[in-house]
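Running log. JK asked me to keep both predictions on one page so they can be read side by side. First protein, sequence followed by its tokens:
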Amino acid sequence: MLGFYDYTVWLTYASLVSAGAGILFSLQGNGHPYVGIFFLMISGLCDAFDGRVARSKKDRTEMEKKFGVQIDSLADLVAFGVLPICVGSAMLRVYETIPSVASKLRINCNGLILNILTIAIMLFFLLAALIRLAYFNVTEEERQKKESGGRKYYEGLPVTSSAIIFPLILTIQYIQPADITPLYFLGLLLVGIAFISKFKVPKPGLREILIMIGIGALDFLILLFFMVLK
């Protein structure tokens, strides 16, 4: 068979499968955005350790290394680029934000203007994630030609931050009664801009990764508690 299937790529494959499940659950007729957000957090957990697992195998061939880089970026685009906008689409359907907001702002044509705006934001976010991942791959390849070891800083906000930011936004829905769908789309816009902005972000070490996992786990439990309670 084509491809590689040893343990070094299992977490990346799992991240993609989780993202695919989240997309399908978000977009189906009776899907719910909170189900999609659970799968987003699972993808984030897989991504947090896939690189460390891959580097644990010392005898990887150059082809295995390049394959790992390619599938990691492709999986990240689906998990942290496509899935968040599918969650946003599910929010629009479940909470019917467009008709209610359109009514308040007296926008005709069944919220056509807001519909176009939300679609534009989602497409911008997806494009920004794609550009961010491609730019990182190119610059990382050039960096490795000049210096050895891992990088200390990222340029622009890493796309994997989606796994922390958007679950936290959705948690707000259970803290207060107002519909937070507009806030979610504002988050998509700002995070998309951060993906392609030129600023340095320190690369997290194991300690920082474990802290973020702890935050994600707490958020996961809070969302699960409120969903079961509701």
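And the second, directly underneath as requested:
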Amino acid sequence: MSLSVREMKKEDIDLIVDYFINADPEFLTSMGADKNKLPDAIEWTKKLNLELKKSYTDKEFYYIIWLLDEIPVGHSNINTIAYGKTAKMHLHLWKNSKRKKGLGAEFLKKTIPFYFENFKLEKLICEPYSENIAPNKTLVKIGFEFIKKYETIPGWINFLQNVNSYELTKDQYRRIHMSK
């Protein structure tokens, strides 16, 4: 079993959009997303295609594709990007059969360097739905620091919810990355 990651390519866009658009509403709710807030597939595809053309300093979204034996099985992305400062990270394994096997942590270890290096980040933030156990466990496992739990609407596809806020600073990232 070979795990690898790479930047999103044009051919990945439909996979990302389909993951959300065709998801079961209960699954979306379990991760804190509201099916009714999802953009139209055509609009979303167009937006991601535009992001591919932007420089790192101008990106609103940036995606890393997760590959298992060279087959795309998920993604991580950042948004709310303040180049040279902070970004908010999200993580998604697309198939239920791939979840709860420790893959997310291994993929994130390979993904995080892209964020810190390409965007010159000082801090990476992740705020999963507090009731979504998997990402909360994964973040702690790979060295993110729990900051606080609070109520918010964390993103444009989310409903009002409690999130757990985690951070990984550049210094923490360097310590983890250098210890490999």
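Observation for JK regarding the second prediction: The first helix runs from residue 13 to 21.
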